[in-house]
Specification:
- This protein is mostly helical.
- The protein contains five helices and no strands.
- The chain is about 45% helix and about 0% strand.
- It starts with about 45 loop residues before the first helix and ends in a 13-residue tail after the last helix.
Amino acid sequence: MMTPEQSPMGPASVKSKRPKLDSSGDDEVSNSTTQNEFKFSEYPSLEHLRRTQAEFAKERNWDQFHQPRNLLLAMVGEVGEVAELFQWRGETKEGLPDWSERDKKHLEQELSDVLIYLLRLADKCKVDLPKAALEKIDLNSKKYPAYKVYGSSKKYNEYDEM
């Protein structure tokens, strides 16, 4: 497998507040990781996916159709397809142990469609999605301090003042 440095797209260059990683790429900040903990692959980066999808659309002359409104509506349609996969199944356990491999693959494809449209929408709206996501997580940590909301599903405005 090609590393980010070997890729013609180059390594990811997003400046963000990231946890320190040890030499294996594991998060040093979290001591609660387990052998079976799920992780995303580190490559490709969101930037690599954004550039790849932009090139894909350009090669097909689809930029003319990729206006923010159209991309949003297409993404909502794809979210509906993800919802269909969960419809009528009741509660689903983490890892989807009761799903067939075929159904899991279908989910993988539909979630990928949602991500691709989300990245394309962010690209067309000039939103640095990784940076914005980290800023949103930081904002949420202030709205929902762990000591105050631990184990609760209330909305931030339902908590007593500090």
